[in-house]
Design brief:
Number of strands: 4
Distance between the termini: 24 Å
Largest sheet: 4 strands, parallel
Oligomer: single chain
Strand content: 5-15%
Order of helices and strands: HEHHEHHEHHE
Helix content: 40-55%
Number of helices: 7
Length: about 130
């Protein structure tokens, strides 16, 4: 995925998957997911010492989806590898230890959320 190719994301890249086959398998298995935006990433980051406690509230699914535009916005706000690493490395490390982190493109979201339009058939999902 193009966003993951950014050098700024080098330190967090190992914690985020772009494997759509694996993602669909996880979604079929768990029937629910959480979609993260920049606000929640920032809030998690600011509360990093409380992250294990905060993650207990996300008990419906181990799947966290991060839209590519959210990740792109995060590194545009922090444009150097060093600063991005200092700000987000520990967060993504801790999140990935407890949750499955996937980056998804807008195309994948459209295919998944609007399967009739895309001609695909997936079971109904719970969106949190």
């Amino acid at each position: 995925m193009k966003v993951l190719d950014s050098p700024v994301l080098e330190s967090v890249r190992p914690f985020i998957s772009d494997n759509t086959v694996q993602l669909y398998q996880s979604l079929n298995e768990h029937q629910a997911f959480y979609m993260l935006d920049n606000m929640i990433l920032t809030k998690f980051r600011k509360q990093i010492s409380n992250l294990p406690l905060l993650l207990q509230a996300f008990h419906q699914s181990p799947v966290f989806l991060i839209p590519d535009v959210v990740l792109e916005e995060s590194f545009r706000n922090i444009p150097t590898k060093e600063r991005y690493n200092n700000y987000y490395f520990e967060l993504f490390k801790q999140l990935s230890a407890k949750k499955q982190l996937y980056i998804i493109s807008m195309d994948v979201k459209a295919d998944y959320f609007f399967p009739k339009i895309a001609g695909l058939k997936f079971p109904r999902r719970t969106f949190h």
